[in-house]
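ok trying this again, last paste got cut off
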Amino acid sequence: MTIKVGDTIPSVKLMQATAEGPREVSTDDIFKGKTVVLFAVPGAFTPTCSAKHLPSFLANYDALKAKGVDTIACMAVNDVFVMDAWAKSQDVGDRIVMLADGSGVLTRALGLELDLTARGLGIRSQRFALVAKDGVVTHLAVEAPGGFEVSKGEAILAAL
């Protein structure tokens, strides 16, 4: 079942790169007591994800923060090392929390998996963005296949 507005973000563990190396991070810690924008991409280093999706949140970082967003997080079904390399290549710095859902645990729990096996990519995340306040989803925008409209930084900013 796909998550919807009013639902609570599932409690799972993800991986995050840090200066000390990879570390496990809980969705409970990411979302508790905060307003969080979480956007997900089918894959790091893929064309739309690298040229448009992640850059749209970097470009709107200050405006999102001004609207009360505490944390902006990007998630992909990639390993923590790929997410770290992608963050460095995009000059993310500490503006966006890069989350590796390497086994797709959160993606499946949200009901937002995408089967790209035929393209050699396996099971990935659909392209989406959500806003959660204290772990409760207040806005959810899932893209149609091949789309890039409702989950970009500008659309989420307009929804706040």
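PB: full thing came through this time. The mean pLDDT is 94.
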